[in-house]
Amino acid sequence: MKILVTGFTPFGGETINPSWEAVRALDDSIAGADIIKCEIPTEFEASIDALKAAIDAHQPNAILCVGQFGGSPSIQIERVAINLRDARIPDNKGNQPVDEPVFSQGENAYFSTLPVVDSAPDAFFSTIPTRQITDRLRAAGIPAALSYSAGTYVCNNLLYAALYESSQAEKGNSARCGFIHVPYLPDQA
Ligand code: PCA
Asked: For residue 106, what pLDDT band results from cuts at 50, 70 and 90?
């Protein structure tokens, strides 16, 4: 069993991202599963490219992406990814898409951004056991909550792309995918 766990580079003027700090601190093997760690750029396009490259290289059975949610009082277990990019601030490459899809449908002329796919649903549900994860964290005394919006920035974009990829069973991708938002570290708060 291989689990790909990703964190993001710092963004928005921060010098660290708690998501990558948490991911890189994980053991390389947990409960018999190999943990593959990958730092993902906080950029709309490059994040998807980096994820796809890691999927191709490692063929994971599950994918858990982690991102920073500054100001959150708890860990947020994301249940949904939507096909929308609507950035409040530019990404690390200077791109600030507004009212654009993550993936455009071929026949949809209104949206002309890349990448174009045959069928891009409005939303995907995460395919990891979100409620059980939330319950286990809370039982361990760690503030955690189910979340029904991963936002419209790079994190939602990456979860959408991960769930899109894992919905392509005919391409051999069928990993379970989910996303966890973590609060600031004390140094950032
Ligand atoms: N958090 C941002 C993108 C990168 C990160 O760590 C987000 O919530 O979209």
From this structure: low
Q: Which of ligand 1's atoms lies nearest the C-alpha of 42?
A: 4
Which atom of ligand 1 lies at the shortest distance from residue 11's CA?
Answer: 4
Sign of CA dihedral 131, 133, 137, 143: negative
Which of 77, 48, 64, 92 minimizes the C-alpha distance to 7?
64
Q: Pocket around ligand 1: residues whose beta carbon is below 6 Å from it? A: 8, 11, 17, 19, 42, 67-69, 151, 153-155
Q: Which residues of 90-101 are buried (b: 16+ CB within 10 A; e: fewer)?
A: ebbeeeebeebb
Q: Compute the C-alpha angle 81/30/1, nearest 5°.
A: 70
| Residues 150 and 37 sit within 8 Å (Cβ to Cβ) | no
Checking if the pLDDT of 112 tops 70, the result is no
Instruction: For the chain, give the number of residues.
Output: 189
**CB contact set of 21 (below 8 Å; sequence gap of 6+):** 7, 185
pLDDT at 65: 98
